[in-house]
Amino acid sequence: MTxxxxxxxxxxxxxxxxYLDTLGxxxxxHRLLLDVIKDEFERLGIPEVNAVQALLLFNxxxxxxxxxxxxxx
Length: 73
What we know:
The protein is mainly α. The chain has one domain (about 10-70). The protein contains 4 helices and no strands. It has helices spanning about 5-10, 15-45, 50-60, 65-70. Helix 2 crosses helix 3 (about 50-60). It is elongated, with a radius of gyration of 19 Å.
């Protein structure tokens, strides 16, 4: 068995179904996180920053990050 033979084999259907379910759960979790951030900013009375911007600022933290690095995150 060579490495090429291992790459050419198709993934099992059960694995693909589990993988897609996991992706769906991650997307749902991300959306719920954005909802929590949005609700917190509304509670604090800060309408200038939306949830996506706040999450980006949190990920940047104290580091100086270029626009290219932000796009790849």
